């Protein structure tokens, strides 16, 4: 005759087996979960956002599409070559970041996304970005492709008339858009930009691959 404690023992055994199963599942999830990286100089999206198909023209006159965002991290800086202050300051800062990343800089491309296609021809962009670094790229597009790409990035810009037709300036977002190696928007680095923080954050992203 089974003892009165047998049902309790059976229930305990089932409970312990269930705990072991749950523990195994949680361990598997933990082992397979993607690494997470916390950045201090901006915000990472909880879920990276895919970019729609686009076509820009780069500083060599070649097409710049989604394919050029694959395989490495990209920092997109919206600006224009006639910018008197923020753009050259930011590109100069990114040159320093690139230098301090050392060998890790090979996993990162810097792209000036010009919001001034009227004046920023491929030749103009090439001279401008290569003044800061021969590895930097530039790209732009005529309307409406320019606005469509800007909206996909979450970038705003507006033309501000000057004293003459050609002396206008451009107001634009100053955040750096971070694109992951799958060509998705991964986050934003917001001003004021600091070399030390960007080197730390970008270095961690490159090393962790996340």
How confident overall, as mean pLDDT? 87
What order do the strands of the largest sheet run in, or round the barrel if closed? 1-10-9-4-5-6-2-3
The value of Rg in angstroms is 25 Å
CATH topology of the largest domain: Glutaredoxin
Structure classification = alpha+beta
Give a short account of the largest sheet. Answer: 8 strands, mixed
Low-confidence stretches: 1-5, 10-35
Return the CATH class of the largest domain. Answer: Alpha Beta
Number of helices: 5
Query: Any guess at the CATH architecture of the largest domain?
Result: 3-Layer(aba) Sandwich
Residue share in helix: 25-40%
Characterize the quaternary organization of these chains. Answer: single chain
General description of the model:
By secondary structure, this protein is α+β, with helices and mostly antiparallel strands. The chain has two domains: about 1-35; about 40-210, Glutaredoxin (3-Layer(aba) Sandwich). It is about 35% helix and about 25% strand. It is built from five helices and ten strands. Strands 1-10-9-4-5-6-2-3 form an eight-stranded mixed β-sheet. The longest helix has 27 residues, at about 5-30. The radius of gyration is 25 Å and the shape is globular.
């Amino acid at each position: 005759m089974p003892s009165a404690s047998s049902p309790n023992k059976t229930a305990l055994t089932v409970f312990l087996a269930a705990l072991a199963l749950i523990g195994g599942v949680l361990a598997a999830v933990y082992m397979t979960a993607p690494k997470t990286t916390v950045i201090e100089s901006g915000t990472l999206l909880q879920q990276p956002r895919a970019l729609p198909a686009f076509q820009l023209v780069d500083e060599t006159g070649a097409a710049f599409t989604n394919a050029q965002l694959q395989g490495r991290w990209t920092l997109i800086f919206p600006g224009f070559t006639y910018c008197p202050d923020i753009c050259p300051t930011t590109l100069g800062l990114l040159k320093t970041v690139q230098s301090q990343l050392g060998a890790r800089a090979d996993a990162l491309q810097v792209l000036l996304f010009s919001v001034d296609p009227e004046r920023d021809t491929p030749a103009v962009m090439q001279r401008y970005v290569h003044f800061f670094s021969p590895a930097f790229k530039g790209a732009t597009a005529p309307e409406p492709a320019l606005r469509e790409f800007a909206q996909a990035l979450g970038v705003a810009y507006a033309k501000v008339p000057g004293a003459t037709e050609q002396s206008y300036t451009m107001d634009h977002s100053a955040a750096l858009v971070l694109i992951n190696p799958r060509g998705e928007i991964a986050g934003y680095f917001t001003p004021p930009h600091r070399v030390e923080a960007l080197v730390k954050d970008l270095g961690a992203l490159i090393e962790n691959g996340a």
